[in-house]
Amino acid sequence: MKIGVLAFQGDVEEHINMAERASELEDDVQKLSKAAQVEGLDALIIPGGESTTQGKLILKYGIDKAIEKNDNLAIFGTCAGAILISNRIIGYESQFSLKKMDIIIERNAFGRQVESFEAQLSIPVLGEEPFHAVFIRAPVIKKAGDNVKVLADVDNAVVLARQGKYLVSSFHPELTRDIRLHKYFFDMARGRV
Ligand code: GLN
Fold first, then answer.
1. φ, ψ for residue 154 (rounded to 5)?
2. CATH number of residue 136's parent domain
3. 172 is catalytic
4. Where would you tag: which of 83, 105, 114, 166 has the fewest CB atoms within 10 A of its CB?
5. Number of structural domains in the chain
6. Taking all residues of the chain, what is their mean pLDDT, rounded to a whole number?
7. Rounded mean pLDDT of 67-94?
8. What is the pLDDT of residues 115-155, one digit of tens each?
9. Known catalytic residue: 118?
10. Is 143 in the pocket of ligand 1 (CB under 6 A)?
């Protein structure tokens, strides 16, 4: 399987590292910043950072069009990456997004007082052991369509969701040692889960 990490911004090295640990021997893990690299790609990770800036770069380098051409592509958006996959961004309706998931998302939804925090999440699809999640100026999924599966929440705020081969997390799974979520995403891309 061909795995790419969008390398414009954010924890690119950390995602590469996690992807290498979570992938299988025959997989190929690469940083990606050109449209041509999306061709033949099976799984794409869009890291956190700043969604407006990353959105502009996605457009500038034609990554959006390349994604449209690749029907097979599974995408995992973390934090700003989640914003970039959503259908609608509350208060930023003109901001670019790929509109892959039927979710309405709110940026910086936990407010200024709690700019960043960590939580032990219960994520049943990953098993019993809680997942240590790091939130940094995190978005929240305010509304999810019928075909979206909510996989985790924090005090009723949805922070992990899946629709078909698309996965979004409000938090940064690349900042821990736990590779279970990356593994789950690759299993999604392989059609195993
Ligand atoms: N607050 C950022 C945004 O709205 C996302 C933060 C992050 O990716 N850590 O784009």
1. -120, 115
2. 3.40.50.880
3. yes
4. 114
5. 1
6. 97
7. 98
8. 899 999 999 999 999 999 999 999 999 999 999 999 999 99
9. no
10. no
Q: Which of 116, 151, 110 is nearest to 131 (CA)?
A: 151
- Residues 48-65 have pLDDT tens digits of 999 999 999 999 999 999
Please tell me the predicted confidence (pLDDT) of residue 1: 98
Tell whether ligand 1 has an atom less than 6 A from the beta carbon of residue 89. no
Under a CB-based contact definition with an 8 Å cutoff, are residues 80 and 97 in contact? no
Atom of ligand 1 nearest to the CA of 136: 9
Contacts for 103 with CB less than 8 Å, ≥ 6 apart: 85, 86, 87, 88, 141, 142, 143, 144, 145, 148, 161, 163, 168
Per DSSP, the three-state class of 98 is coil
Query: Mean pLDDT over residues 76-84, rounded?
Result: 98
Report the alpha-carbon distance of residue 81 to residue 118 in Å, rounded.
19
pTM over 0.90: yes
For residue 118 and ligand 1, the question of a CB distance below 6 A is answered with: no
> pLDDT grade, residue 101 (50/70/90)?
very high
| Among 15, 106, 174, 182, the one annotated catalytic | 174
One of 15, 79, 106, 182 is an active-site residue; which one? 79
79 is catalytic: yes
Half-sphere exposure of 70 (CA within 13 A, CB side): 21
- Decide whether any atom of ligand 1 lies within 6 Å of the 46 Cβ: no
